[in-house]
Amino acid sequence: MRIAYVSLIPDPGHVVPLVRIASALEPQCECKFYVAAEAEKILASSGLEFELMPEVLPERANFLLGRISVTRPIYRKLFYNRYFESHYYQPIQHNGFKCLPLLSDMLEHYRPDIIVTDEHLLGLAVHLTGHRLGINVLQHRSSGSNQQCQDLQPYARPTLPVQIPLTRILSRAIGKIYNITSRICNPHKFAETQKMKIEVEQQWASIIKKKNELNIPPKIFTTGIAVLEAKHLSQQIKVCEDIDIFGPLPPLFNDSPAPEDADWLNSSLNRPVILVSLGSMVSISQKLARSIVEAGKLNGCRILWISRSNPIPRNYQDDTDIRHVAWAPQPALLADDRIKGFISHAGSGAVQEAFWFGKPLLCIPQLWDQPYNAWVIESLGVGITIDKTDFSTPIISDALGSILHDETIRERMKTFSAEIRFSGTPEKLFNYMETYLSNN
Fold first, then answer.
1. Which terminal residue of the chain has fewer beta carbons within 10 Å of its beta carbon, N or C?
2. Which ranges in the chain are annotated with CATH 3.40.50.2000?
3. Which residue in 358, 353, 352, 332 sits closest to 417, CA to CA?
4. Positive or negative CA dihedral for 293, 299, 302, 308?
5. Residues 393, 295: contact at Cβ < 8 Å?
6. pLDDT digits (tens, 9 = 90+) for 176-223
7. What is the distance between the alpha carbons of residues 137 and 436, in angstroms, rounded to a whole number?
């Protein structure tokens, strides 16, 4: 079977799940990736064959992602979401649409049996491209969960009846003020943004019209914790009925820890090590960083913190029990028995890796699907969630103590880890694709 994997969103959260699928099926399938140029580093380390399309991310993409991660939810709804939409999502879609003719030529030349594409944002556009070429398309939902199917998120706090409509009215009013201000202060940039918006809307109108004319609904599947949610939390959530769900796939082992990191792990074997990784695009406050470090100290832990920038408070910079690294192979570290727990933002990939290696989680979710994933972790009894806006050193210390020493939490995580490891997901996924191909 020849499979083409496509992602016009070059974020690791969308590309890495496809790499996991390809790596799991590689012995039985020939594969090739077609990704935006920003994903080159991810594919180069995978050992899989790939071709690059032009870049799609806007200028200051990392800044925009960092800003939205530290903006409080109410301010995101009122102020930042509109700005983020026009300066991040809109350019990605605009640039992604420009890639479609080149992608079509590449797929025409490769002639795969199946296209597996990331569902997010541009999945439907790739679906129609494949249909025009006479190639079957499967869309992969990168979140790996049932989060998108919830009418009301299970972690959501109660709101007043007027709060939601009032927020929408205020958001629209603020949006109009923002547009007027932008038109006056920077008319050239405003005109460019409006032109791009119109072009994106026209593209989507054309795509949706074609989809309705063809009447061929996309086929969607996901790999992740959705399978655990459906089995153990079905009374508390709405299980997605429009997608096919599979368990997590084996994490990617492309690298080993650096020698200096391995030496640090070996330097004090009688004390537990906590791995901290709060996402590659996330900005955190100094207060949170200090509370995490102090909580580790109170629990007698050593901390290995993965972050692009150094979050360690100044007075702990020379502490040999606290180590910061800009990058490290997270799966290889979670597989290490010396790592006893994981402080995470509860991103989909991090959660799946924690389950695979049986590491209890202290979740500090930031945005998007992360609060839902953290709720699932807590509901399954394999971790604890901390609110990023309401915390203190004692709160984090107590939670850290629980994931280190609560045998109920640790044993439940081991049970779920065994459940997903021996579920045969790669074989089931291969059979699923074979059946889909034979039926279409």
1. C
2. 2-247+424-439, 259-421
3. 358
4. negative
5. yes
6. 777 777 778 888 888 888 899 999 999 999 999 998 998 888 899 999
7. 10
Write out the H or E segment, with its range, that includes residue 356: helix 348-357
Which residue from 407, 413, 438, 289 is spatially nearest to 361, judged by alpha carbons? 413
- Give a three-class secondary structure readout of 248-274: CCCCCCCCCCCHHHHHHHHCCCCCCEE
Instruction: Return phi, psi of residue 180, to 5°.
Output: -65, -45
pLDDT band at 59 (very low <50, low <70, confident <90, very high): confident
Distances (CA, A) of 303 to 103, 139, 224, 230: 44, 38, 27, 34
CA 364 to CA 316: how far, in whole Å?
Answer: 21
430, with CB counted inside 10 A (0-12, 13-18, 19+), is: middle
* pLDDT tens for each residue of 378-430: 999 999 999 988 899 999 999 999 999 999 999 999 999 999 999 899 999 99
Half-sphere exposure of 361 (CA within 13 A, CB side): 35
Neighbours of 151 (CB within 10 A): 5
Contact call for residues 250 and 273 (beta carbons, < 8 A):
no
Contact predicate 417/358, CB 8 Å: yes
Provide the CATH topology of domain 259-421: Rossmann fold (3.40.50)
CATH fold, domain 2-247+424-439, is Rossmann fold (3.40.50)
**For 338, phi and psi rounded to 5 degrees?**
-75, -20
Q: Cβ contacts of residue 407 below 8 Å, gap of 6+?
A: none
Residue 160: its pLDDT value, please?
A: 57
Residue 228 and residue 420 in contact, taking contact as beta carbons nearer than 8 Å: yes
How large is the average pLDDT for residues 169-173? 72
Identify whether the C-beta of residue 201 lies closer than 8 Å to the C-beta of residue 93.
no
What residue has token string 């039985």? 28
Residues contacting 111, CB < 8 A, separation 6+ = 2, 135
Question: Which pTM was predicted?
Answer: 0.90
CB atoms within 10 A of CB 183: 14
Tell which residue, 13, 2, 30, 47, has the closest CA to residue 366: 13
